[in-house]
Structures are given as C-alpha cells and as structure tokens.
C-alpha cells in the first residue's frame, strides 16, 4: 500500500511510499483519505505524523496519471474530499528531500507543525509549466508573510530547508536522520495531554483567525464550558489531572 498507516502509542503515522519521488496516484489519494478518516475516528490516536519513505517527502502527483484522469473526468477527487474534511486533531510533517506539488499542498493544509531535514527542498514549480494557482489553494498568503508568498508563487523557485524556516514554512531544521524522530518527539509531547484539550486548542487556533475579536472570545468561553462539563461527567477535575501528572513527572526524574 503506497500510503501506509499505523499507530505508535497514541501517535498515528502516515508514510507516503511510492518509488524514489513518492509521487501520488489517484489510488494513493483515496488510501490517504480513508486512513485519514480512520485517524479522526480513533480516540486512541491523538496526533499524527506525515512523512515520506526514503529520501523524499513527495514530489507531487504522477502527472501522467493526472492527465488521464483530467481527460476522463470519471474519478472522484479524493484529494479534494480529504482537504475539505474538518480536521480536529493536530498533524506534524517530517520533510526530507523534495516537497513539491501535491506534497507541499498536503503539508501546508494538513499539518500544523513542520520539521525539515537539511535535504528538504520546497516550492511551487507549477508556474513554469503554465499551471498557476497552487498558492491560492494553499492559502499561502495567510500562512507566511506576503512578500515570501509572492516570491515563492511567482518565481517557482525551490528553496532549501533553512530558507523554508526563514520564510516560516517550517518550524525547525534537523539532520535528515533526526527529522522523523524529532517530529515523533513533538507528537508524543502533544499526545500526553487529554484529547479534549488537544481538540479544543486546535479548534481555537483555526477558528480564532476567522472570527472577530468578540466572536473569538465567545467561542473560547463556549469551549471552556464544554471542557468543564466533560471533566465533571468524567468524575474528576482539570486541577486534579494536573497534580497527578506533575507528581508522575517528578517521580520519573
């Protein structure tokens, strides 16, 4: 299966695995979509890591297959179905090598934290082939400063890992060998928290940018009340949880 999915504790791992460049086929988009739904429905999976097998994250779609699909117009656009899903759990990308086309689309739209190995090369080369528009699909101008977004979108240049960090496309740069393990380290740190709090915080991050100030405050109040109800229904308090966790962590030191 070219898009592999498995659990490591409370962390789900998606691995793009299709040849040297990890090109996406229509079948792979469908596999990714169905595995993604499995991740969302599984309360044991609190956070996910998205990575590529071998030397590359993904260089995008298999263009030969994409051309055939466009001509036939018979296949469902599984990538669109996936990207239009409401995401309630955080995802982290571990990027080595090429991250282009559909690869960078998935990274930008599905992951909240991004770790890049030193070999990572990110970009939007489609403009050189007469196919613009990917910067709009990824809402690039919202994710990073406008001048960086314009440069990437209009030049088609592929930037290295350090430049990607300077452009705010990734959080950290590590060696290639440490990229996945660092992503897993962050994922496990997140997974230590109660799932309801993780979902609430992620929802607040996403909704907060779309609401007015008063709307964001009202939404936060509603979230607080819902979490309090959850703790009361579970028969414990957030304060007790924090004390128990602190005691447990002290015991490990």
UniProtKB/TrEMBL annotation:
SUPFAM superfamilies: ClpP/crotonase. Transmembrane segments: none annotated. CDD domains: crotonase-like (cd06558). Belongs to the enoyl-CoA hydratase/isomerase family. This is Enoyl-CoA hydratase. It comes from Colwellia marinimaniae.
């Amino acid at each position: 299966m070219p898009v592999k999915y498995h659990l490591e504790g409370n962390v789900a791992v998606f691995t793009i695995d299709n040849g040297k460049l990890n090109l996406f086929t229509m079948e792979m988009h469908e596999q990714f979509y169905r595995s993604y739904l499995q991740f969302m429905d599984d309360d044991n999976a609190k956070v996910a890591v998205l990575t590529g097998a071998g030397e590359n994250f993904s260089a995008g779609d298999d263009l030969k297959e994409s051309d055939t699909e466009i001509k036939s117009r018979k296949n469902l656009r599984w990538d669109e179905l996936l990207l239009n899903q409401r995401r309630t759990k955080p995802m982290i990308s571990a990027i080595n090598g090429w991250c282009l086309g559909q690869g960078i689309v998935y990274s930008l739209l599905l992951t909240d934290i991004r770790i890049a190995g030193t070999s990572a090369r990110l970009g939007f080369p489609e403009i050189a082939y007469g196919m613009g528009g990917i910067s709009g699909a990824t809402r690039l101008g919202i994710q990073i400063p406008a001048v960086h977004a314009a440069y990437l979108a209009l030049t088609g240049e592929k930037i290295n890992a350090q430049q990607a960090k300077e452009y705010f496309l990734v959080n950290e740069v590590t060696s290639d060998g440490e990229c996945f393990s660092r992503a897993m380290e962050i994922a496990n740190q997140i997974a230590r928290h109660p799932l309801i709090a993780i979902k609430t915080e992620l929802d607040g991050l996403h909704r907060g940018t779309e609401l007015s100030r008063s709307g964001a405050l009202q939404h936060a109040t509603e979230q607080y009340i819902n979490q309090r109800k959850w703790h009361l229904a579970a028969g414990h308090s957030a304060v007790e949880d924090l004390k128990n966790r602190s005691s447990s962590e002290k015991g490990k030191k």
